[in-house]
Amino acid sequence: MKIKEFCGRHKKSIIITVISVVVVLAIAGGAVYYFLLRDTGGGDVSFASMGGTSMGAENGSMVSLDLSNAVTASGVTSVGMTQETWEVENLANILYVEEVYISSGDQVSEGDLVLKLTEDSVEEARETLETVLREAELAYRTGVIEYEQSLITAEYDRDLALMNGEYAQTTYDNTVANLTSSVERAQEALDEAQEQIAEYEELIASGDYYAYYQVGELKALYDDNRSLLTQLVDELGVDWSQVTGGGGGMSGASSDAVMVCQELYSVLEQNEKDYEEALANYEDAVANAELNLQSLQLSLNSLKEELAQAQENYETQVLQAQLTYESTLASAERAESDYETAVEAAESEYESLLDDYEDAQENLELFESTVGDSYYYAQSSGSVLSLMLRADQYLSSDSVIFIYSNTEEMTVTVSVDQADIASVSVGESVYVQSSESGLYSGTVTSINPVSNSSSRASVTYEVTVTLSGDVQNLSTNETVSVIFGIDMTEMGGAADGTEAADGTEAANGAKAADGTETAEETGEGEQQ
Q1: 486: Cβ contacts below 8 Å, ≥ 6 apart
Q2: How many CA atoms lie within 13 A of 432 on its CB side?
Q3: H or E stretch covering 465
Q4: Number of other residues whose CB lies within 10 A of the CB of residue 390
Q5: CA–CA distance from 287 to each of 209, 279, 393 (Å)?
Q6: Which of 24, 92, 372, 519 has the greatest number of CB atoms lying within 10 Å of its CB?
Q7: CA distances from residue 272 to 207, 210, 214, 280 in whole angstroms, order as listed
Q8: pTM of model > 0.90
Q9: Cα-flanking dihedrals φ and ψ of residue 350, to 5°?
């Protein structure tokens, strides 16, 4: 983490002070450059006219560039500053600082002892991180199984959707056929009941049952035979008691006459019996017919309701079947994409668990490598600018331990006018011209989106450039010029000590931006 980020998080007053100094120096440098540039009349401007030495020049010639489309601003160099941060993450425990071995202003090297922590607090933190690792490992192993299951389920769902799509039409047709059959059965039951009602009503009203059981015929036969027997008994002078077998006195009739009358009476008795049986059957049949008719009439409303319900089911369920049919086809069409989505989700979950597991491993390894023996050692070399921890304080995740200067990094912050800021972008390659040590290459590393200008008439924005290569010849707080918008091919190798745009070698008597020596330093300049 750079000091500017630290100041923004922890020391707002420091960053405000630094910004104020940079702005003042930038304005001063910009004014100097403005007058120098004005004297050239614009157009092709040599770096010598900006206070620099001639670049890549044999016999003292200068590299000349078209700066008509370039943006130039001046600023002051500053040495890089780095925060030494304890980067162990997700640790709820805090470590107790027992002793500190460095002070502000000390020069430290990588591996130097910085502070000592109590063994108890280190052990507690270790146990916590080991627990986190075990839980992450368990979650990961469980996730592996769930991942495999998810793949199987996704494949099954895809195949099922495709199969359903193939049979969607058949399923729809079967559903419609079943619904149609239900309506037809309900209609048939109603029609049959109505037909039976009509038949019973007709049977009861028409007297068909009376004729069917021959009630009238049997009664007429009985009446006729009784009349004949009565007439015969009278003619023969036979006593009725003799005919019916009831005994009684003897009449004047012969025994043969009595026997004939008795035989005829037996026939008459059978005629009466047949008539009474037929009459009883007729009455039972009429009673049953009326009962059945009544039952059918009572069931008629129910059958009508069943038909209406079947028709309603047909209308609603056919519509639902149509929607299901279309949905099934749509599911079949997107089955492959749904499968891929499910697989991606499963892979994402799996990778997240794997990342958590690996992070927990790395976190524990980082803990052991930094404070595993209860001591913390410097991770880099530099001059201590500010010590953030003292004895009897606590070290926790993301704690800043101390801030030190980084002489291997050099930055320059310049103010760019509002009219030009749109042409500048983070990551853009630029050139930095020093009047003392020549030309360097650099990269735009940040652009402050908030203007630092108090005047509405002149709005500027801070742009920070980090120089690359060997910057040992540059001095801290040196005023330099930053040139934006120049095609790198225009410079040839002027900034790295190889060849300039005109093919000559750089001869500015300093190291180029990548640390190679220029022609003058190697002695080649004198030979040329």
Answers
A1: 65, 67, 70, 430, 431
A2: 32
A3: strand 460-467
A4: 10
A5: 11, 12, 110
A6: 519
A7: 21, 16, 13, 12
A8: no
A9: -65, -45
How far apart CA 478 and CA 489 sit, in angstroms, is: 27
Q: Name, in order, each residue with C-beta under 8 angstroms of 326's C-beta and a sequence gap of 6 or more.
A: none
Find the DSSP H helices in 334-402: 335-371
Quickly tell me which residue has 């502070």 as its tokens. Answer: 115
How far apart are alpha carbons 203 and 207 in whole angstroms?
6
Q: Tell me the one-letter amino acid at 155.
A: E
Count of CB atoms situated within 10 Å of the CB of 161: 20
DSSP-derived pairing of the beta strands 394-395 and 64-66: unpaired
Question: 460-467 and 400-417: which strand pairing?
Answer: antiparallel
Residue 74 CA: distances (Å) to CA of 177, 413, 479, 496: 87, 8, 7, 21
Helices vs strands, H then E, count in the chain: 12, 14
248: pLDDT confidence band, cut at 50, 70 and 90?
low
**What residues have CB less than 8 Å from 413, skipping those under 6 apart?**
22, 26, 75, 76, 78, 462, 463, 464, 465
* Residue 445: half-sphere exposure toward Cβ, Cα within 13 Å: 16
Note the pLDDT of residue 267.
93
Q: DSSP class of residue 504? A: P
The CA-atom distances, in angstroms, between 63 and each of 203, 300, 339 are: 128, 111, 62
Q: Are 84 and 118 in contact (CB under 8 A)?
A: no
pLDDT tens sequence across 447-470: 998 887 777 778 899 999 999 888
Q: How many CA atoms lie within 13 A of 40 on its CB side?
A: 19
Phi and psi at 239, nearest 5°, equal: -75, 135
The answer to whether the beta carbons of residues 14 and 388 sit under 8 Å apart is no
Output phi, psi for 438, to 5 deg: 100, -150
CA distance 385 to 83: 10
The Cα 60–Cα 507 span in angstroms is 8
415: β partners: 462
